[in-house]
Amino acid sequence: MSSISPGEIKNEFVRSKMGIAGISILVILITISVVAIIAIPSETFSEWNNPGNWISYPKVAIPGWVNLFLIEKIPEHQILEKPIKKIEVSGDISAVSHQFRLNFNYDDFPNDFIYEFSAQYSGAPLLEISVIRPDGIRLDLLSTSLPNSNTDTIHTERIFSTDESIRKKLFLQSDKFDFSLDKLSSEDIVFSNSESNTPLKGNYNFVINLYGVNSQNQIPDSTLIVGGKAFGVMGTDELRRDLAIGLLWGTPLALFIGIVVAIASVVMGLLYGVYAGYRGKKTDEAMMRFNDVIYALPALPFLIILSVTISNSIFLMIGFLTIFGWVGIAKVSRSMALQIKTRGYIDAAEIMGQKKSKIILRHILPQLLPYAFASVAISVPAAITTEAGLSFLGLGDPSFPTWGQILHDANVYGAASRGLWWWIMPPGMMIAITGLAFVFIGNALDVIVNPKLRR
Amino acid sequence: MITLLLTISLVGSNMDTILKQGVVFQVRAEITEDPTIANSFASSDEFEDFVQDQIDQRIKILGLDEPWYSPQRIGLTMYKILLLDFGQATFLTSDAGSTDVKDIILEKLPRTILLFTTATIIISVIGIFLGALSGSKVGSAIDRVTSSFAIISSSFPVWWIGMLMIFLFAFVYQIFPARATPSIPSSDPDYIVSLLYHMALPLITIVMIGFGAWAYLVRNFMVGIMQEDFITSKKIMGISKKKIIYTHALKNAAPPIVTILALSLSGSLGGAIITEAVFDWPGMGRLYFEAITVMDLPIIIGATYILTVFFLISIFIADLLYGYFDPRVRTG
Asked: Strand, helix or coil at A112?
């Protein structure tokens, strides 16, 4: 093997289109990871498996941008958090009024609507919800009294559109509609034209009034959620999780796993192989037989056994992947070391009485560095796909949302046969793109480092 | 044999833990099933002691108190395995309901052979021809397409492509069924047709992802061989290019190809654990995965053994073929 100076490698690398493509994809991925780490607080991803955290998100919602390509717009999920607040006091009675303005411009009914609030009151105030529709019809949805309390309390509740009292209230106003309200859910009635049961577009105004005798009554938290079928950049999954967050967080995780495993196994293989090759004779023989044994082990079954029996922590997983990753590199670097060993300058160094460790580190290893870089780049995709595969089987670390885990959940909930493409495509694309970036870089380096492949 | 011994010894400690855990689990289940036992103890400590006692007894009876590397146990295990007696499965059963490990493996193996070995053969045939073609015309359009396809397909996980295929062909265009397991009983005469129909989607997926890498490999061998002198002289002699590629060059590339073919054929017997999970294909890979997740030790050992044996046999056959194709390696 001819030694190539780092400058030459750089020059040749810059000239290869593949290498440039790989590097630019990698830069984009690193930018994404940095954005993910900075922009998304780490609490969000540690709450990934906590269903309570995602309750106000829609179930299996399609990505919001799909609407741009559709003629019939899918209702988008809307979380309205800033109502227009008014407090009126007339005599003894105070009325706290919150108004939510909602622009509804879609061709389908929303999934549901939920009013989530926490009210601070004393006594038993009356809560009234009504909606003024674009066609001017006012529909009363609910009037209920909050639980009685003699002292000042805070009451938190979620009122769902499936509430039976809302349905009853709507049935009483069935004269406002020209069609039968039987078997229709409340959201299909509220957002319907009065002539026929089709969605009515326009500005809706949801009015929430809290009547009480105490002028201190207030609603500190008040959120209206209109459940849609489209949400966010990447949609949501069956457990209402925002896939954009999972995908963003998966990027640094995958890069971390891939790069750490690759570097660790290359360093291990390199040292092992070079040492065996340099020492030669019985040491070499013994070390290579041990190498063969690990080489013959079926990696995936063993990884599964290890992760089932020992632990599925992500750091141990990195260790396991390393154990199966270094073998091939050790073989190649041993044969390279055998070649280098015969060179004159090694003999010279030996005659000069240099230590063996120094000869290995100073004279042999630097020669192998180009090869080492190429193999780091080539091992990364394998590590990422193996980790993704293990996570896909449900053996991943549950505390980190990796791409493999998103796909695992997708498979568990039958996303493929239900046509939930936004749950399957992006994670796999990310895995493939990350893999491709490293394969490109690796191949470009390989062509430079391996004179055999050059033509 | 050494490989098997090493395999067993490497997993040995793990398996021991698995077995002991199995015993603990079993004992606990038995005891909690009967509430009177739990009620007859005054404190929970006493109860725990009793449970521990039971577990220790059970472990002693099964001979698990000796470490897994004790010659007695290893010898016994190896002897049994040699006689193809894998014992009874702990949790899993075959479709027919038998708990004999041999029955279970014999039931799953043909299915895996049907899917993966067929796929491997198709892949290698396509791969060899494409590779030979692109290797003989370096830099041509077909060479570039093959090479880039190989590189791109190598970075896609097969199981993800599987999910996409299910989405495309089972959901969007409802051509193939999503689940690969036929729903009709195996005694039905239409069973084979149905099985083949269910097989189509996984087969297409595996072939699609697999042949690129094969073609690339064969191409790289061919590139080297096509530059050799004897090919040049044959060209000068006026032998048609087709004949040179497919008889002379390919024969010289045969030894490494045969080795890889033998290895991938024997590897295909194990199926791909993840691919079978995606397509719900009831073969060896899924058996392996299920066995590991419920820690069904006899099946794990049995399946590993069978696969190792096939692996060794195929290496042996590959060596013989090597000698046939390349007389230079023949000695004595």
From this structure: strand
Whether residue B157 and residue A440 make contact (CB cut-off 8 A), yes or no, is: no
Neighbouring-strand partners of residue A113 = A226
Residue range B168-175: mean pLDDT, rounded: 76
Q: Is the pTM of this model over 0.90?
A: no
Q: Given CB atoms, is A220 within the 8 Å cutoff of chain B?
A: no
Q: How far apart are CA A96 and CA A84, in angstroms?
A: 11
- Write a three-state SS string for chain B: CHHHHHHHHHHHHHHHHHHHHHHHHHHHHHHHHCHHHHHCCCCHHHHHHHHHHHHHHHHHHCCCCCCCCCHHHHHHHHHHHHCCCCCECCCCCCCCCCCEHHHHHHHHHHHHHHHHHHHHHHHHHHHHHHHHHHHHCCCCHHHHHHHHHHHHHHCCCHHHHHHHHHHHHHHHCCCCCCCCCCCCCCCCCCHHHHHHHHHHHHHHHHHHHHHHHHHHHHHHHHHHHHCCHHHHHHHHHCCCHHHHHHHHHHHHHHHHHHHHHHHHHHHHHCCCHHHHHHHCCCCHHHHHHHHHHCCCHHHHHHHHHHHHHHHHHHHHHHHHHHHHHCHHHCCC
Residue appearing with tokens 């199995």: B22
Q: Give yes or no for residue A144 having a pLDDT over 60.
A: yes
Two tokens, residue B298: 């006899």
A 176-215 residues inside an 8 A Cβ radius of B: none
Put simply, the answer to whether A432 touches B160 (Cβ < 8 Å) is: yes
Q: What are A18-42's pLDDT values in tens digits? A: 788 888 888 988 888 888 888 777 7
On whether any CB of chain B is under 8 Å from the CB of A424, the answer is: yes
Query: Inter-chain contact A298–B10, Cβ cutoff 8 Å?
Result: no
Min Cα separation A100/chain B (Å): 39
In this prediction, residue A264 has a pLDDT band, given cuts at 50, 70 and 90, of very high
- How many CB atoms are located within 10 Å of the residue A18 CB? 19
Go through A63-86 and write b for each residue having 16 or more CB atoms within 10 A of its CB, e for each that does not. bbebbeeeeebbbbbbbbeebeee
Name the minimum distance, in Å, from the CA of A432 to any CA of chain B. Answer: 5
Q: What is the CA radius of gyration of chain A?
A: 32
The predicted-structure confidence for A291-326, as pLDDT tens digits, reads as follows 877 776 667 777 777 777 677 788 888 888 888 888
